[in-house]
Amino acid sequence: MNLYHLRYFVTLAQLEHYGKTAEKLKITQPGLSHAIASLEEELGVKLFEKEGRNVVLNKYGKMFYNDASKIISMLDISVNSFQNISEGGGNISLSIIKPLAIKDIPKVAHDFLDINKDKEIDFKFYTGVTKDIVEGLKSGIYDIGFCSKMENETEVEFVPIKKQEMCAVVPYDHPLAKYKELNLKDTIPYKQIIFSKSSGLRPVIDGLFEKIGEYPKVSYEVEEDSLIVGLIAQNFGIAILPKMYSIQYINVKAIPIIKPDWESYFYIARMKNRYHSPAADSFFKYVCEKGL
């Protein structure tokens, strides 16, 4: 039994005429007759009865038709879906770290859809920390990640797309809140909330403190930046964080760090030696070229 035979059977059951069915399927009538006979032989039962020049399903043919028509319908839906993917459509699964999730990635995704209106593209959005995003890329859950760079992940392609602006985030009634910019050394006397070691930003911030040869007293280690900001607003400490769009809506102040000199970026990431759909590949290249 093969899928051609199933399709021939379903079409014959619908048209009830060998000649019309052969014409629709663009095969010879003897070829159609042979296929139906082979199918009946394999199943061990007759499927059709003659009615004049037509044929109709018998009891067993009707039973088989219910299953065969479902199989053909499911196959057609699947084939159409993959044809859409091959033509640049389909789903693109993104996982995003919080600093980029509120404004940057929604905007670039909207812009990409706007210039690809002729394609049926749909995004699936997820958020997470860098470690989990990279694990999701490796396990095939996500097509593309927006995260920090993990130096030991040699199978992952990281491309810088936006420079990180580091700030000291403090409550409005904090002694540092009166300043417009700060040296990192100015933050040392105050208890700080830092990212946990699972965060991709932890090495960046540790590197900043290494540059000045000092490290603050740590009050809490937290994985999520949104929780860090919430703790700051309630006077649990201050923190060194990337500038985030959401900070302006919370009762904290973000003060740019101007010293020490440093360079750090947000990255777009995907697996190096793995097949990427045309849509995912196109979006990756679009973001790399456009940036954020």
From TrEMBL:
InterPro entries: HTH-type_LysR_regulators, LysR_HTH_N, LysR_subst-bd, WH-like_DNA-bd_sf, WH_DNA-bd_sf
Gene3D superfamilies hit by this protein: 3.40.190.290, Winged helix-like DNA-binding domain superfamily/Winged helix DNA-binding domain
Gene Ontology, cellular component aspect: cytosol
Annotated HTH lysR-type domain residues: 1-58
Superkingdom: Bacteria
Family annotation (SUPFAM superfamilies): Periplasmic binding protein-like II, Winged helix' DNA-binding domain
CDD domains the record matches: PBP2_GltC_like
Pfam family, one: HTH_1
GO terms assigned for molecular function: DNA binding; DNA-binding transcription factor activity
Entry keywords, A to Z: DNA-binding, Transcription, Transcription regulation
Stated family: Belongs to the LysR transcriptional regulatory family.
Name of the molecule in the record: HTH-type transcriptional regulator BenM
Organism of origin: Clostridium neonatale
Organism lineage string: Bacteria, Bacillati, Bacillota, Clostridia, Eubacteriales
Gene: benM
